[in-house]
Amino acid sequence: MSVDHHLLEKYWAGLCTPAERKAVEQWMSEGIPEESYELRSPETEPVMKDQLWQRITQARQEENEIQQPTKIVRMPIWFSGIAIAAILILMIGLGLYVLKNQSSSTPLIAYQELILPHGKKASITLSDGTKVYLNAGSRLKYPKKFSETERRIFLDGEAFFEVAKNPEKPFYVQTKQTTTRVLGTRFNIQSWKGYADRLNVEEGRVQFTAAGCADTLILHANMQGLFDGHQLVQTAVNSANKIAWTKGIMVFNDTKLSEVTAELERWFAVQIHLSDPGLANYRLKARFDNNPSLIGVLQGISFALNIKYKIKDKEVTLFR
Questions:
Q1: Could you report the per-residue pLDDT of 144-200, keeping only the tens digit for each?
Q2: Contact by Cβ (8 Å): 243, 250
Q3: Residue 50: how many CB atoms within 10 A of its CB?
Q4: Using CB atoms within 10 A of its CB, is residue 181 exposed (0-12), middle (13-18) or buried (19+)?
Q5: Model pTM score
Q6: Residue 47 CB neighbour total at 10 angstroms
Q7: Hey, what domains does the chain have and what are their CATH numbers?
Q8: Which of 183, 200, 285, 300 could in theory staple to 242 by disulfide, Cβ–Cβ 3.0 to 4.6 A?
């Protein structure tokens, strides 16, 4: 796996897969590369050194924890000295590179984060004029000002984008598994932990790729791209239903009850329990308009699926 500045950005944003994280840390342990990469981080040299030492120490602790207690591996003194020297050289190199960039005319890109708890939604306008609608329980990492060559942000959760047109500077949305590339369009991305990444296009033309997958999807309006961790799948959808949440509308179209409850937990900041595991495979087809209340949604689900519910504080239980 090659290490470029995009992969380094994911590493420092905490969005790398285990394989990508291993590749970056192996690359760092080998010393200073022949080619310089901009780390795109606002941290000063001391902060970066501290973070690097912490990552190295943590990695060593993890390795020690998984070693068998009956096996003792003795590292030669000369090898330890070389390893420490390599780490120090790498840290010095990173520090010099930061100082070099700080003194140049091109400043490092400073990132900001917008983190939403369950029960809260928000919208934000980026420096290029792009509008982002962030769903509850989501995290968005974006620069105060984009670079001269591209516009790249990082998403964990769900967001709807109205990307400002700029043919000279493509716009990228990076999740832990996928990359979406556009020049200017409207689309919705879902990237929830434990679920497939979904890209739904409302307007324009969008490129969709995934880590470890050779395929590339080119999607247009009313098309969906899905990555299940192994392959990319393209289907036709009604994009209006996929972005209805931005207007305070909940739409479920033959959706598993397990996915419905996950959405309700984010929307209303509650915990939902299924008394019978078999309920998870029940499927719901329903629409709730005008920023519905929790009780209103539960009553609709209860009627549609012929089940019951009870509420205690912030906990909901569904049962037959």
A1: 999 999 999 999 999 999 999 999 999 999 999 999 999 999 999 999 999 999 999
A2: no
A3: 11
A4: middle
A5: 0.70
A6: 12
A7: 5-103 (no CATH), 111-242 (2.60.120.1440), 248-319 (3.55.50.30)
A8: 200
